[in-house]
Specification:
Number of domains: 1
Number of helices: 4
CATH topology: Glutaredoxin
CATH superfamily: Glutaredoxin
Largest sheet: 4 strands, mixed
CATH class: Alpha Beta
Number of strands: 4
Strand content: 25-35%
């Protein structure tokens, strides 16, 4: 697996969805992320990280709620929100960091 530091230090903004498989609507969230990724193209990265498979990282970042969305730019956390977000909201947020 790619190191987290490499992911957040990308040359483009990164939207991360921290999720767990036990959340009932994870399929719906995946659809939202596909729309966001398609809208942003190669101007940004959109990834999902399973907190159950990455417990140490989730603890280090104090991920408590699911889903938790985080935007990084140049290795720095710029925005964080717990709870469902629609595609347009996420696209607009990411465009602020392009």
């Amino acid at each position: 697996m790619t190191k987290f530091g490499d992911v957040i230090n990308a040359k483009v903004p990164v939207l991360i969805d921290f999720y767990a498989d036990w959340e009932g609507d994870s399929c719906d969230f995946s659809g939202v992320l596909r729309v966001v990724a398609a809208a942003l193209g190669d101007k940004a990265k959109v990834i999902k990280i399973d907190i159950e498979k990455n417990e140490v990282l989730a603890e280090a970042l104090r991920i408590k709620g699911n889903p938790t969305y985080v935007i990084y730019k140049d290795g720095e956390m710029k925005w964080r929100q717990v709870g469902e977000q629609d595609a347009n909201t996420l696209i607009n947020l990411m465009q602020e960091y392009l």
